[in-house]
Amino acid sequence: MSSGDEPKPICEDHVIKGRRLSNRIRKGVKAEVEALVEKHGMAPKLVTLIVGEDPGSEMYVRMKHKASNKAGILSDHHGLSEDTSEEDLLKLIDELNHDKAVHGILVQLPLPKHIDEKKIISAIDPLKDVDGFSPGNIYRLFYGGEELSAATPHGIVTMLDAIGMEDLSGKHAVIINRSMIVGKPLIFLLLNRNATVTVCHSRTADLPSFTLQADVLVTAIGRRKAEEDPYYISADMVKEGAVVIDVSTPLGDVDFEEVKKKALCVTPVPGGVGPMTIAMLLQNVVDAYSAQIS
Ligand code: GUN
């Protein structure tokens, strides 16, 4: 391969190009879908569900559909009213579980308070659980398997892999988040790569004492610190040469311009973790389809 054909680097000028990596993965997914349609005469299909009206959830789900369709994945959506009962939601999930034309089911979170999230997630057929939140898929992750793992944390470690950090032996990874969607699955994905992992959260005292130890810092706080000083993660909280991953959208936790001067690599917002989440979801839909069709 001549130097002109070299793929562009994922970390360039201290910035992790999440969109570049996402586009690369999505191109691969599209090619996989074409081959699967050719072989089996049926396209993979993702079905999403939202209960209630949340503009953020609606925007994220619209993006998931658009990306799916661009990759040749069919999609359908159920926008259910806020007062939908748990029983009706379980009935719909059961129908989708039994529908052979449906390969991926995604219930966008959060759900209204009257619905037991755990019960709903547990009702999804683990083979169709493209979020990786159901008990069977969490259990697999616990034992080191990464098939159908949660899209955002899987996107984060895929970025680390792409910048040559697939083995984190001797490295300290610090996560600021303990949610089921990001922090908890990420613990296991980082352990799989031999990192020493620390989890910080809203009740952690003296956050800088932890962030300053981080060779890999992943932050998903998602709130402004103050109007005049908005970023929770300032450059003086970051170790020289660290890799910094900012999960928060739409505004970001990290003082990107200042941290970039000190970090080995930092993700931008937008254009970092967000596009990776979409790419990993599409990969999960194709993997789920392959597992079901075989
Ligand atoms: N809400 C915020 N992020 C996610 C996600 O990755 N999956 C689902 N189902 N809901 C979310």
* Major β-sheet strand ordering: 7-6-8-9-10
Tell me about the largest β-sheet. Answer: 5 strands, parallel
Quaternary: single chain
Rg, rounded, reads 19 Å
Number of helices: 10
What is the CATH architecture assignment of the largest domain?
Answer: 3-Layer(aba) Sandwich
Name of the CATH class of the largest domain? Alpha Beta
- CATH fold-level assignment of the largest domain: Rossmann fold
User: What is the element string, with H for helices and E for strands?
Assistant: EEHEHEHEHHHEHEHEEHEH
Shape: globular
In whole angstroms, how far apart are the ends? 36 Å
Q: Which kinds of small molecule does this entry bind, naming each only once? A: guanine
* β-sheet strand percentage: 5-15%
How many domains would you count in the coordinates? 2
Find the count of extended strands (DSSP E, 2+ residues). 10
What can you tell me about this protein's structure?
By secondary structure, the chain is of the alpha/beta class. It folds into 2 domains: 41-126, Rossmann fold (3-Layer(aba) Sandwich), CATH 3.40.50; 151-274, NAD(P)-binding Rossmann-like Domain (Rossmann fold, 3-Layer(aba) Sandwich), CATH 3.40.50. Helix content is 41%, strand content 14%. It has 10 helices and 10 strands. The chain has helices at residues 18-40, 55-70, 86-98, 117-123, 135-142, 151-162, 183-192, 207-211, 256-260, 273-293, and strands at 11-12, 15-16, 45-51, 74-80, 104-107, 172-176, 196-200, 216-219, 243-246, 265-266. The two termini are 36 Å apart. Guanine binds next to β5 and α6.
